[in-house]
Predict the structure.
Amino acid sequence: MVSYTLFGTAIGKIALFWGDAGILALALPAQTDATTVRHASEMARRNGPDREPPTEVALSEAPAPIRDAASRVEAHLRGEAGPTADLAAIELDERRLTPFRRRVYTEARRIPRGQLVSYAELARRAGSPGAARAVGRAMATNPWPLVVPCHRVVSAEGDLHGFSAPGGTRTKATLLEIEGYVPKRQPAEALPPAEAQGTLPFRSAR
């Protein structure tokens, strides 16, 4: 059985799916709770031990490790930076990851809070220099946004693009601002029309 929970944060409700080997997926807030849960469910299905949809998915009371993970995410999104907001201790279910994706996600989790790394540099750190595009695909399909901090990975020019979570690039900028990073530039012309108007699927914590 796959279980999930919804919990509140400074930017809205986050959905978290887990199984017997750790967290399968985490979805950032969308326009509605149902949409957030659906996003997390789709990621959990792709990332779970079986490619077929789970036979049973239930809104469940979270066990201690899941409550701890939720607490760390809440603290992080409040802008805290101490041990209680450390996301590196959160256990993920990585059984379906390819060796390449596992290396990329491991290195991404080592990027310090509020710092940026390019796709090319992350590829080099993961032992696959020249695989920047593959790193970009791994970031776009990351089932654990925030925990695997794909928002800290940017183009070689430093532009904030390529964020697949609800709100797109605006969400990426907001997550970095919570960590104390202020983007040097964020060209509106690179954003979809709704995002260029400043629309977010949640109320910014800042």
Remarks:
- The chain has seven helices and six strands.
- The first strand starts at residue 2 and ends at 9.
- The chain has two domains: 2-89, 99-196.
- The beta strands are 2-9, 12-19, 22-27, 57-59, 117-118, 153-154.
